[in-house]
Fold TetR/AcrR family transcriptional regulator.
Amino acid sequence: MGDTSRFAVAEDDTRAAIMRATYDALTSHGYANLTIQRIADEFEKSKSLLYHHYDGKDDLLVDFLRFMLEHWEAKAECREDQDPRTRLEGLLDRVAAVDLDEETAAFTAAMEELRGQAPHDAAYREQFTEHDRALRERFATIVETGIDDGVFHEADPERVAEFLLTTVNGIRIQRVTRDDTGGVAAARAELDEYLATRLYRGEA
Amino acid sequence: MGDTSRFAVAEDDTRAAIMRATYDALTSHGYANLTIQRIADEFEKSKSLLYHHYDGKDDLLVDFLRFMLEHWEAKAECREDQDPRTRLEGLLDRVAAVDLDEETAAFTAAMEELRGQAPHDAAYREQFTEHDRALRERFATIVETGIDDGVFHEADPERVAEFLLTTVNGIRIQRVTRDDTGGVAAARAELDEYLATRLYRGEA
């Protein structure tokens, strides 16, 4: 959920244009310093459209989270020709990369600030529940395929998927809330060790 | 970092009394709805003392995080007579319990809201960097002891510790930002599986 190509899908669509402006404003200002005016500043169409569609900053951001998830789910998993291990490692690289470019790092920090609203805001909590479900399901599908194909050891795919999701969410929050690198490289290296012994046949 | 006995250590001390009031206000109101007045409402001594010591809500909360860490570090690890596995599992039960009582759950949610300030606030970020360091060091010490005692397999204690910390932080953030149970039981079960194969000799 880190690349921006999703916004190209329907650039002429008003909602997509608002979402693009929201992405840009979040990346530039973060959540705490975000105002609906700053989103409007990034919006090329009539600003009244934006005020017409949303009650305020949080209403808009919750729809932004919904939009991100829709596009994540719509993107076909085009990698079914790849073996399960390559798919799993590719997915981990997309959702918990060791190195992030500046824009992705800024956006990632803003997403964790949004997640920080979820403890006291049910609308945010609903969105992050769904974001987590979507990623967990994708992990579970790959693990299940690997077991069915006989390349992964027997395991409970749901439980492994929840654990992988937990490590990804740990990596994401640590990365943007610590002065050091958040331990991402060490955590990913140990995660690979776990996968090698827990899942991959013919390893260890 | 979940029990409240720490506040009893120096109850007559002004700072400890302010910290106790902050804990109570955070547990009752969370971060988003917290005001310095609400902390003052929980404070039995002169409210002017509180305003005298702190510039505002965030200044006070950053000192609260510092106070929490000082007490966590001061609490002697009185369990050196226990075997490393028991110590490790005991520590995980304290920092990432499957079930939380209502007060601890409310406090945990507030702590994650505070962590959500760290992406845009350097003072919070410094505190969470130190909180993570303290927990990582405690994990690393136990893992190192287990290896030295010959009861754990060879492993890089620092890397294992960072991975354990990452799963703990994943559990903590998921628990309070999802409508379901945050997958805590499943993640902990798979974490136990990891520990059994990765560390514990004579398992699997």
User: Anything to note?
Assistant: Chain B has nine helices and no strands. Residues 18 and 137 of chain B are 29 Å apart (CA to CA).
